[in-house]
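Quiz preparation item.
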């Protein structure tokens, strides 16, 4: 079973996703079942982190296109919109570092990945009209920082699964492949905003200064189905480690 926990003789499972005995430093345990479970959690964590980086950085592309679709903001206003996700993301990381020991890796990965729907859907609706208040765009920009916070909790979670000899490689894969979200975003968004791929659900195109159509809202909407899929994968496929618990004070 994909999320079965490790049971002791005579013990009954009340939560098949909870690992009550986790001994990655035990070679026999690691070879028998530990490595398989750890790698499954890693392979689910990587695309979740990739999406987090994509959402964190997507606002920089959106801001660059705002003047083309009629948002009459000053250079200073555009600068602040571009800078805010970095500021909020760094702040969220401080808090997210503590979340896995408190809530568990599976639950927090599910919550933090699902939270990316807030800025992506927010982008999709906020940029469709130049009449959107500047304060609304400020809020959306700050919420994009949720993707930056995910890095801290993702790395914390994966570190619990692997023995010390393999922890470095696992964290490098998680961080390195997760960071590819920036490149994926930079490649995909300039293409996706030039076509009405979501039809009526995505809304009408905006007319740029040179008369061409632009679906800037697609920069947010394009991530929604992938975030939903990744959230479901985290909930049904990941595990919590019972020993990886601590209070906020700890």
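Solution:
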């Amino acid at each position: 079973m994909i999320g079965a926990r490790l049971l002791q003789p005579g013990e009954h499972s009340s939560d098949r996703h909870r690992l009550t005995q986790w001994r990655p430093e035990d070679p026999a345990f690691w070879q028998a079942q530990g490595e398989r479970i750890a790698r499954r959690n890693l392979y689910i964590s990587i695309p979740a982190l990739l999406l987090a980086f994509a959402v964190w950085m997507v606002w920089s592309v959106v801001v660059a296109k705002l003047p083309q679709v009629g948002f009459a903001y000053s250079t200073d206003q555009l600068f602040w919109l571009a800078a805010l996700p970095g500021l909020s993301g760094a702040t969220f990381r401080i808090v997210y570092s503590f979340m896995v020991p408190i809530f568990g890796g599976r639950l927090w990965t599910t919550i933090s990945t699902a939270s990316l729907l807030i800025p992506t859907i927010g982008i999709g609706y906020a940029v469709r009209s130049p009449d959107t208040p500047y304060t609304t765009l400020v809020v959306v920009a700050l919420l994009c920082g949720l993707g930056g916070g995910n890095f801290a909790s993702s790395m914390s979670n994966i570190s619990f699964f692997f023995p010390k000899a393999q922890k470095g490689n696992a964290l490098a894969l998680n961080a390195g492949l997760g960071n590819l979200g920036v490149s994926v975003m930079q490649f995909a968004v300039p293409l996706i905003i030039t076509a009405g791929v979501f039809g009526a659900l995505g809304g009408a195109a905006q007319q740029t200064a040179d008369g061409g159509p632009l679906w800037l809202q697609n920069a947010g909407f394009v991530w929604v189905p992938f975030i939903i899929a990744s959230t479901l994968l985290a909930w049904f496929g990941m595990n919590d480690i019972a020993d990886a618990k601590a209070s906020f004070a700890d």
